[in-house]
Amino acid sequence: MTTIGIIGAGHIGSQIARKAVELGYDVVIGNSRGPETLSDLVNELGPHARAATAAEAAAAGDFAVVTVPFRAYRNLPVEPLAGKVVIDTNNYYWERDGHFPELDKGEATTSGLVQKHLEGAKVAKGFNHINFADITTSGTPAGTADRRALATASDFPEAVELVTRLYDEFGFDAVNIGPLDESWRVERDRPAYGVRQNAAELKENLGRAPRTI
Ligand SMILES: NC(=O)c1ccc[n+]([C@@H]2O[C@H](COP(=O)([O-])OP(=O)(O)OC[C@H]3O[C@@H](n4cnc5c(N)ncnc54)[C@H](OP(=O)(O)O)[C@@H]3O)[C@@H](O)[C@H]2O)c1
């Protein structure tokens, strides 16, 4: 049995947990306020899910998903995620997160900053350009015509492999952007952001993305 540690239990965290449990994963999920605030969610998810602190969720996961507001990335626990694949769903909304000048100037990427903070982890961008509601509803079996595709990026091939496999189980084709330095191509407000697209369309949209917006 594979356990996914999920840090962040909001729109995206809870949806990934729902689909993961449906697929047979065990899930340990945490937020900032404490496990006691997640009793409704874990009751809904059933016996393959439990609530924990963020650090406990990180430690319990064979791999992890971090899905907190971007501004909180420096609070993510480092030590329990070291050596693990960490799927980062974050997007930068300066209106919500405050300004990060290196992102405003196009000198960094959101997932690149998460990777710098999570020393020793293998960060992969994932699930950042799909609306939370679609995670449980828009997947289809492999080989379906016009199957929806999602992008990933990582400096670690094994992280790309894991995300590719997970996307497929969730019902999506994967498109590998390359290293995290290139992951701006799927950040907020680029052509690939938020729209439903198949793999060919996603590749085209990634290719025509502007570096800054
Ligand atoms: N909503 C979407 O459709 C969507 C789609 C793709 C990507 N994203 C991106 O994914 C990320 C999460 O989005 P969301 O919509 O799921 O956000 P959300 O609904 O606001 O949920 C955020 C979650 O993060 C938790 N959290 C905040 N600070 C934390 C910390 N320091 N340690 C542990 N947990 C913490 C919150 O816990 P508490 O409530 O206890 O504070 C909450 O459970 C964002 O960067 C967002 O831009 C969102």
TrEMBL record:
<keyword id="KW-0560">Oxidoreductase</keyword>
<dbReference type="Pfam" id="PF03807">
    <property type="entry name" value="F420_oxidored"/>
</dbReference>
<dbReference type="InterPro" id="IPR051267">
    <property type="entry name" value="STEAP_metalloreductase"/>
</dbReference>
<dbReference type="InterPro" id="IPR028939">
    <property type="entry name" value="P5C_Rdtase_cat_N"/>
</dbReference>
<dbReference type="GO" id="GO:0016491">
    <property type="term" value="F:oxidoreductase activity"/>
</dbReference>
<feature type="domain" description="Pyrroline-5-carboxylate reductase catalytic N-terminal">
    <location>
        <begin position="3"/>
        <end position="92"/>
    </location>
</feature>
<protein>
    <submittedName>
        <fullName>NADP oxidoreductase</fullName>
    </submittedName>
</protein>
<dbReference type="InterPro" id="IPR036291">
    <property type="entry name" value="NAD(P)-bd_dom_sf"/>
</dbReference>
